[in-house]
Amino acid sequence: MRTPIPAGQWHLITLVVPRTFVYNVLLSLVWPFIASLTRSVLVPTALSFATMIVAVMFAGQAVGQYIPWVIPSYDLAHPGFSSSIGYLLIVFIGLIGIYGTIYVWTVKDQQ
Questions:
Q1: Residue 28 CB-half CA count within 13 A
Q2: How far apart are CA 67 and CA 64, in angstroms?
Q3: Binning pLDDT at 50, 70 and 90, where does residue 78 land?
């Protein structure tokens, strides 16, 4: 029985797609932090739309590899792409989102 996936694409499906999923999850953790800080849903929604517009505008340019919301799509388009600065930005934004949200929920909301 033949599989619908070409033989050369298994690397993409088994390694790159899950890694891209993790990048997107880390990048999305900053929005609850901003929502908790501003006590509003409109501010993070507007910032996420603005971020996506900027990401689309600069995705095809050289500076796009340093915009954290463009890096997952770079990783899907170019599986051999490696920019340690870009990956560190994603991890840094994810950590800010996680620890910032925990801080706001435990300290700021309890006052």
A1: 7
A2: 5
A3: confident
Alpha carbons 49 and 55: distance in angstroms, whole number: 10
Tell me the three state secondary structure of residue 1: coil
- Percentage of the chain with pLDDT > 90? 41
Residue 29 and residue 31: Cα distance in Å, rounded?
6
Q: How far is CA 21 from the centre of its chain?
A: 8
- Enter the tokens of residue 78: 């170019």
What sections of 1-111 are H helices per DSSP?
10-11, 17-28, 30-38, 42-58, 71-77, 84-103
Q: Given a cut of 70, is residue 1 above it in pLDDT?
A: no
Residue type, 34: I
The whole-model pTM stands at 0.79
Q: Which residue has 């915009």 as its token pair?
A: 67
Question: Distance of alpha carbon 4 from its chain centroid, rounded?
Answer: 29
